[in-house]
Amino acid sequence: MINVKKIAPIFVGLGAISFGVPASLFKIARREGVANGPLLFWSFLSAVVILGVIQLVRHARLKGQATSWKQIGLVIAAGTASGFTNTFYIQALKLIPVAVAAVMLMQAVWLSTLLGAVIHHRRPSRLQTVSIVLVLLGTILAAGLFPITQALSPWGLLLSFLAACSYACTMQFTASLGNNLDPLSKTWLLCLGAFILIAILWSPQLITAPTTPATVGWGVLIALFSMVFPLVMYSLFMPYLELGIGPILSSLELPASIVVAFVLLGETVDWVQMVGVVVIITAVVLPNVLNRRRARP
After folding, report:
1. Crossing angle for the helix pair 22-31 and 36-58, nearest 10 degrees?
2. How far apart are CA 79 and CA 260, in angstroms?
3. Residue 1 pLDDT more than 90?
4. Which of 118, 147, 45, 141 is nearest to 86 (CA)?
5. 3-state SS, residue 297
6. What is the rounded CA–CA span in Å between residue 207 and residue 199?
7. DSSP letters along 18-57, please?
8. pLDDT, tens digit, 9 for 90 and up, residues 229-252
9. Nearest to 109 by CA among 269, 293, 273, 253
């Protein structure tokens, strides 16, 4: 019989790596003439449909999950943060390399910590403060800001930072809302909220831009890598991980984004940027490792 606890880290890690693929796919799709609005629309529509089918197969009805329509509505509303994240991120990718955009998106780690401190009226611990400083230092290096070795669009950096802000909100909202719901049901509702926002926000382009087979195809592929596969992996296997392991494995998204961009797009990363990436991953891993050691009897 398979020991789920032993294989859980592998599948959670694969889910994190999967999150690193869509940024490069966005750029490839744009090269083929696919507009951002329709691409996001079909990505989220595909995710809603696929996760909806999974819900039907599992017979996971919302009525039997000890929840209320108010709670369901709040979870759907919280999903709009993910819609904003993808909107800002895909716009940023028009202006800056994938590696830089991925690094800026990782700012969600410390932004989420600060947001949680404000919401719960508590100061970040010394360890969290050190982690935040390390992430900021790593960002300066990994984004190529010191020394400046390439011309970077300030607007692109701002958009990717706004994506990180939205992502931080997503992490806080999903942690505090709909905890009575089955994880996959909650994921489906979050995707539904994001899809509704995308449909409204990008409606002008959806009307004017043509929907081609390439648009639908790329949309489905991006949905599989950015939502369906990683979220299903997280929902099924994250509960089997020891405390603190999840964030460590989630940090694999950053190097995965850079490696995929190198392989698919030919983007290059110098040694200073790689040092920055290592610093950021250390900032994510270190607090969780130390907290695990303290928790041991």
Report:
1. 130
2. 27
3. no
4. 45
5. coil
6. 11
7. HHTSHHHHHHHHHHTT--HHHHHHHHHHHHHHHHHHHHHH
8. 888 888 778 777 765 566 667 778
9. 253
- By the 8 A CB rule, do 88 and 162 touch? yes
- What pLDDT, in 10s, does the model give residues 196-240? 999 999 999 998 888 889 999 999 999 999 888 888 888 778 777
Name the pTM for this structure. Answer: 0.83
* Numbers of helices and strands, H then E, in the chain: 16, 0
Q: Which residues contact 69 (CB under 8 A, 6 or more apart)?
A: none
Angle of helix 69-78 versus helix 154-176 axis, rounded to 10: 160
Over 90: is that where the pLDDT of 99 sits? no
Distance CA 30, CA 216 (A): 13
Mean pLDDT of the chain: 82
